[in-house]
Amino acid sequence: MLQQQPITGNGPNSGRGIGLNAHPGMHPLNSVHPPTQHRPDGDSGLEGTENGHENRRDIGDILQQIMTITDQSLDEAQAKKHALNCHRMKPALFSVLCEIKEKTGLSMRNTQEEEPPDPQLVRLDNMLLAEGVAGPEKGGGAAAAVSAATSSGGMSPDSSLEHSDYKQKLSQIRTIYHTELEKYEQACAEFTTHVMNLLREQSRTRPVSPREIERMVAIIHRKFSSIQTQLKQSTCEAVMILRSRFLDARRKRRNFSKQATEVLNEYFYSHLSNPYPSEEAKEELAKQCGITVSQVSNWFGNKRIRYKKNISKFQEEANIYAMKTAMGATQREGSPHTPNSTGSADLFLGAPPVNGEQPGYHMGAQDSVSQSRFADRLYSPRESRVRSSSHAWSCSWDRTVSNKLTPAQLAAC
DNA sequence: GATTATGATTTTCT
DNA sequence: AGAAAATCATAATC
């Protein structure tokens, strides 16, 4: 627009702009246009000498004014500024100018002032809060996250050690996060204050309304919040990596202690006809082995399926435990049995005397006496009670395993 | 380092 | 819902 003026502008102001006509190089341009009607003298396109002189005088005046400003002392300038500020028309003029600004350039920004909270940021906030990184410092924050993550899988005996390591690392992340957040907030506050002061200062000489300052502050905060989002995102990533490293149970699998395996195996082989411990029995076993109930369940699940898949592989182990149990039973011979007892006493529950006979170790062999004994047991009141609580047992274990028990194992059962 | 053992998880079944 | 079966991933062993 402005650049076109010299070409098309031959109106009343044409030829009076500062510097344009004064520049000698512009004359050929102007000369393209024929002389307009307000020049009846039919000048050949060159500015009239009077006009030219007038323009030069104007420019000279302006230059002179500029020069005098630099000559003014600071006090003088301040006094003038003050006088301007105290001018009775100033507030009115100020507000009018502010209004005009609002209606023009700044109206665009009004539309985006009330934007909804960023869903991504909300998600990050929620996660940081849940992980105990953000929010109030509470001792149980990290621990709660850990227990929540491990509740399904159970805890290994050395888990407390690893959890403290996890907590320590998490608190490191927390510290870094809070330090960075503080830095960010400080920087944001500093910058905001600086800009506000600057704008307030400038509002004395140019139309800057308080509303505009507020808006500017909001813009600054928006810009800074993107940095905050990045910080939150990287913190979340760090927490996720930490979690996957420390809380993935499969990653840190530890074998149970020998003693724990012993206890579990003893129970398993002494209940080979129905290796489904009740909830109470599981709790008891868990207590004895120093593992969780779900770990006991896992162990029995694994053991059952692996035993069933390859019985011959487990024969030796089975016989060892059967012998152990049988010997235990022999030792206890004569002592009163409590058929409905639970827990470790259940190991010898109902195990009949093997008539002094040592376990035969007839791998896979199955005599008719054992079979009938097994059948008896199968339909004994106790067994039927247990069976009703273990639906799968009658369908799967009974058919595939129980009828392959060796005499020693059966005796143990 | 290949193989096996084993605890945990996931999927399927009853 | 709980167990079986399949699978994964790591520990232990050779």
Summarize the structure.
By secondary structure, the protein is mainly α.
| Proportion in β-strands | under 5%
**Total domain modules:** 3
Give the mean pLDDT.
Answer: 66
Q: What is the level-2 CATH architecture name of the largest domain?
A: Orthogonal Bundle
Number of extended strands: 0
Could you say which structural class the secondary elements and strand pairing correspond to?
mainly alpha
Task: Return the CATH class of the largest domain.
Answer: Mainly Alpha
Shape: rod-shaped
Major β-sheet annotation: none
Instruction: Please give the count of helices.
Output: 18
How helical, in percent, are the residues? 55-70%
- Rg, nearest Å: 47 Å
Reading the helices and strands in chain order gives HHHHHHHHHHHHHHHHHH
Biased composition (Low complexity): 143-156
DNA-binding region: 249-311
Domain Homeobox: 247-310
Subcellular location: Nucleus
Outline the structure in words:
This protein is mostly helical and 413 residues long. It has 3 domains: 5-109, no CATH class; 119-247, no CATH class; 258-412, Arc Repressor Mutant, subunit A (Orthogonal Bundle). Helix content is 65%, strand content 0%. The protein has helices at 5-8, 27-32, 49-71, 74-85, 90-103, 107-111, 119-130, 140-150, 159-202, 210-247, 258-270, 279-289, 293-309, 311-331, 368-378, 381-389, 391-400, 407-412. Helix 9 (159-202) runs antiparallel to helix 10 (210-247). It binds a DNA duplex (14 and 14 nucleotides) through residues 152-154, 156, 248-256, 276, 294-295, 297-302, 304-306, 308-309, 390-393, 395-397. Residues 1-55, 139-165, 329-376 are annotated as: Disordered.
